[in-house]
């Protein structure tokens, strides 16, 4: 199997304090990895390391087979940050402009947007059910609608690998279900590799094929999500949870047809 992320002996700390110590794991093409763990266990820090926003003290990171220090395919990587910190929504830009901004590497910064690009933007908005809002100002949308637009912004550049850091914070439960459903379909139907940090263990165990548990400066990858779910969900809910009931979640998906 082709590895899209390879981490070997990675250590990182802010100042003297180690947050991650001697961590090694890999993610294969087509995986949907749910990253869980208590507050402060280093989940967001790990994503920042994978996005090269911070540098490790020790160890190696490879993305799409390339050492991160020389990595030059950032257009194939999508990132949906935790909503509040990700974007200045008072900026007077329309939904269409916010999404097409992620095409600038293709379009060129000062060139006019062509109809083929406009079509890509429309398609991405359609995938998240926001095409009717394309001329609206981003700042005038609700939190959940903005989050959908940020996902369209990532999709428009057709990434192979998407990182999401708690993407459902501030989203109502219906939109939350729709978002997980969409991610599951992007993974299943388009083969996009997904790494998602979430505190929603129930949703993660349904949609992910691997669960990465962070804690004690390390990461344990669970490849048998059913077994993991059985044990951990019983612990949380006090009884067995029927995961199959959640698998048919697509009744409220934003996008009913093919994606
Ligand atoms: N810029 C920073 N400078 C110093 N310490 C930091 C910085 N960012 C995070 N930390 C510390 O590093 C540890 C890991 O933080 P991180 O944000 O990665 O945790 P997390 O697992 O994402 O937590 P949460 O579930 O609350 O989002 C925490 O103890 C945090 O206080
Ligand atoms: Mg975090």
From TrEMBL:
<dbReference type="InterPro" id="IPR017871">
    <property type="entry name" value="ABC_transporter-like_CS"/>
</dbReference>
<keyword id="KW-0813">Transport</keyword>
<feature type="domain" description="ABC transporter">
    <location>
        <begin position="5"/>
        <end position="241"/>
    </location>
</feature>
<dbReference type="Pfam" id="PF00005">
    <property type="entry name" value="ABC_tran"/>
</dbReference>
<keyword id="KW-0067">ATP-binding</keyword>
<comment type="similarity">
    <text>Belongs to the ABC transporter superfamily.</text>
</comment>
<dbReference type="InterPro" id="IPR050153">
    <property type="entry name" value="Metal_Ion_Import_ABC"/>
</dbReference>
<dbReference type="InterPro" id="IPR003593">
    <property type="entry name" value="AAA+_ATPase"/>
</dbReference>
<dbReference type="GO" id="GO:0016887">
    <property type="term" value="F:ATP hydrolysis activity"/>
</dbReference>
<dbReference type="InterPro" id="IPR003439">
    <property type="entry name" value="ABC_transporter-like_ATP-bd"/>
</dbReference>
<keyword id="KW-0547">Nucleotide-binding</keyword>
<dbReference type="GO" id="GO:0005524">
    <property type="term" value="F:ATP binding"/>
</dbReference>
<protein>
    <submittedName>
        <fullName>Zinc ABC transporter ZnuC</fullName>
    </submittedName>
</protein>
<dbReference type="InterPro" id="IPR027417">
    <property type="entry name" value="P-loop_NTPase"/>
</dbReference>
């Amino acid at each position: 199997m082709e590895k899209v992320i390879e981490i070997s002996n990675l250590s990182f700390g802010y100042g003297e304090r180690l947050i991650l110590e001697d961590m090694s794991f890999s993610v294969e093409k087509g995986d949907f990895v749910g990253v869980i763990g208590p507050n402060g266990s280093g989940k967001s820090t790990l994503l920042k390391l994978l996005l090269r926003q911070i540098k490790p003290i020790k160890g190696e990171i490879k993305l799409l087979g390339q050492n991160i220090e020389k990595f030059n395919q950032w257009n194939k990587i999508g990132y949906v940050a935790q909503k509040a910190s990700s974007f200045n929504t008072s900026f007077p830009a329309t939904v269409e402009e916010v999404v097409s901004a992620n095409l600038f590497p293709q379009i060129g910064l000062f060139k006019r947007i062509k109809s083929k690009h406009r079509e890509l933007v429309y398609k991405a908005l359609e995938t998240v059910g926001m095409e009717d809002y394309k001329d609206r100002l981003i700042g005038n949308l609700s939190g959940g609608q903005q989050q959908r637009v940020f996902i369209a912004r990532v999709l428009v550049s057709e990434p192979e690998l998407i990182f999401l850091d708690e993407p459902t914070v501030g989203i109502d439960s219906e939109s939350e279900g729709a978002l997980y459903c969409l991610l599951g379909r992007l993974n299943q139907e388009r083969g996009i590799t997904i790494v998602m940090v979430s505190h929603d263990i129930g949703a993660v165990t349904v949609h992910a094929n691997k669960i990465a548990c962070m804690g004690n400066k390390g990461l344990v990858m669970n490849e048998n999500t059913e077994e993991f779910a059985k044990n951990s969900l019983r612990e949380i809910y006090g009884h067995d949870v029927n995961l199959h009931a959640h698998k048919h979640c697509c009744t409220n998906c934003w996008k009913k047809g093919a994606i």
